[in-house]
Amino acid sequence: MFTGIIQSVGHLRRLERRGGDVRLEIGTGKLDLSDVKGGDSVATNGVCLTVVGQGADWFAADVSLETLSLTTLGNLSTGSPLNLEKSLGVTDRLGGHMVSGHVDGVGEVLSLGQDGRSWRYTLRAPDQLARYIARKGSICIDGVSLTVNAVNGAEFELNIIPATMRETVFEGYRAGSRVNLEVDLVARYLERLLQGDAAAHPDNTGGISRAFLASHGFPSS
User: Deepest in the core among 70, 128, 169, 190, taking most CB within 10 A?
Assistant: First the structure.
């Protein structure tokens, strides 16, 4: 479990393809690895990765085909900057929101512009994730815990303060940049719980429609 508060910007040292999936070797920048050992988790651009090897200022992690299909990790090039966060300790402060490191899909930066001393970003999520994104709700972008300012269909807006720009990879985003998205954990489970017994049926599509709500006693207006 993570908080979405980035602890260091590292970089990709090496990407090695192994039988369809990949092994990443990641330089960790200022991240303190003294309390990290094999089997521990490090969020890398929002993706929870398991440490399988390490040195004083780097660690290695294997990335499965499932993770490659849902994230941007397979498209990284040597030197690509990466947001890093070690897993949450029991006594740590929860400065952002509860982040699992299980990325739901890849979004796209549509536009960005200065807004006072901050920056305003507009992004587009995959259609199947749009229902989980709510105004003033939480979302995780490449591992960064952020508040959604506005929503319009599958598009949503974020406000990035100067400190976040300095301490994360946001400064390198441009229109067209692809980013890892993790929607709010509560929204995912709430949808599943609302399905009740229907969740156990193989033909269940997983969505909550007006017809579904009406059949379970919710008012139509």
Answer: 169
